[in-house]
């Protein structure tokens, strides 16, 4: 008596036929964060909290609380802390390098004098496989300013692109107008062109990136 051949095996679920319909989803995935500028495509999906925000694979920006939070520094593998302030005293933690650039958040502060030194330090730490946290008091003005300078110098972003990306990662940033003027000078030094300019407004000289929102504020 001849044994009948075994029935054919069912197709593997992992190898659907070309005519198989694509799976359908019952709900849409969450919306992604704002897209990065063209030359920032290699930058990471941003980590964003009130204390700490990630700008690149090796650069974080935050406030004084983040700089003194041992758990936050450890979990994000921070190896260097750069303090852009005169008033904040860091808690020195073993295994972390600390640098301080004394800058006040005032119109007369010459933060531009430190752009190259801070940017080159962040870059060097990244090349060694480390991670840098740049902070001031609130992570809004001074730290944002030097981080934008770093993105211009070592990621070749324009000032407008650097601001767009930094603000997407940390929406609270707001460099003071004097710092904007120094960033504009720095952009021209790097690229011989400007993508942001200072303009007159009823509130004084402001960068043109704020023109629309200042107009909305004045219309209320």
Automatic annotation (TrEMBL):
Q: Give the Tyrosine-protein phosphatase domain ranges.
A: 51-192
Q: Which residues lie in Pro residues bias regions?
A: 1-21, 29-39
Location, primary (coarse class): cytoplasm
List UniProt keywords, sorted A-Z.
Answer: Cytoplasm, Hydrolase, Membrane, Mitochondrion, Mitochondrion inner membrane, Nucleus, Protein phosphatase
Similarity comment text for this entry: Belongs to the protein-tyrosine phosphatase family. Non-receptor class dual specificity subfamily.
| PANTHER family registered for this protein in UniProt | DUAL SPECIFICITY PHOSPHATASE 21, DUAL SPECIFICITY PROTEIN PHOSPHATASE 21
Q: Supply the name of the protein.
A: Protein-tyrosine-phosphatase
């Amino acid at each position: 008596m001849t044994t009948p051949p075994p029935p054919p095996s069912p197709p593997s679920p992992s190898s659907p036929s070309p005519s198989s319909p694509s799976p359908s989803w019952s709900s849409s995935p969450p919306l992604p964060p704002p897209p990065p500028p063209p030359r920032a495509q290699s930058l990471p999906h941003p980590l964003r909290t009130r204390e700490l925000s990630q700008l690149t694979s090796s650069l974080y920006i935050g406030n004084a609380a983040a700089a003194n939070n041992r758990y936050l520094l450890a979990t994000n593998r921070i190896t260097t802390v750069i303090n852009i302030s005169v008033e904040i005293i860091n808690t020195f933690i073993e295994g972390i390098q600390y640098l301080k650039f004394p800058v006040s958040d005032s119109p007369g502060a010459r933060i531009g004098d430190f752009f190259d030194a801070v940017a080159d330090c962040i870059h060097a730490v990244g090349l060694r496989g480390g991670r840098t946290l740049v902070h001031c008091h609130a992570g809004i003005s001074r730290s944002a300013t030097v981080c934008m300078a770093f993105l211009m110098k070592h990621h070749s972003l324009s000032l407008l692109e650097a601001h767009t990306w930094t603000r997407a990662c940390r929406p609270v940033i707001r460099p003071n107008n004097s710092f904007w003027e120094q960033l504009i000078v720095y952009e021209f030094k790097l690229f011989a062109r400007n993508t942001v300019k200072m303009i007159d407004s009823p509130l004084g000289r402001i960068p043109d990136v704020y023109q629309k929102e200042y107009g909305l504020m004045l219309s209320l």
